[in-house]
Design goal:
mainly alpha; 2 domains
Length: about 120
Amino acid sequence: MPQQQLMEEAERIAQGWVANEEQRKFLAGSQLEELKTTNARESEQLADAFLGAAFLKEQSRFLWSKKKYAPSALFFFVMDAKTTLVTLNVGAAATLSYLFYSFLYGLLGLHQVYSQHG
C-alpha cells in the first residue's frame, strides 16, 4: 500500500475511534499502569547499559581502532569520570548531571577541534 494511502486509511480509522468514543485497547490484556511500570524499568535498564563500563570501554576501543581518537577519548573520559563519581559515592542525580555536562563539554571541544581543521 502506498504511503499516502496508508496515512489516509490510518487517519480514517482514528477519526472513527474518536467519533465512536472508543477507549484505547492494549494487546494481550495489558493494562496502562502495567505498561508504564514496564517502560520505566526498561528505560532504567537501557540507561544503565549505555552508562555501563563495558559499553563505554568497547565504544572507546572501537573508535580508537578506527583512528577516531577524540571521540574515543570522550568515551574513555565518561567511563573514568563515572567510575570516580561512583567511588566517591556521589548521588545518582549528581553523577548523571556531571556526565551530561561533561559529554556536552566534550562535544563542544571536539567541535572546536574539527572546525579548526576543516
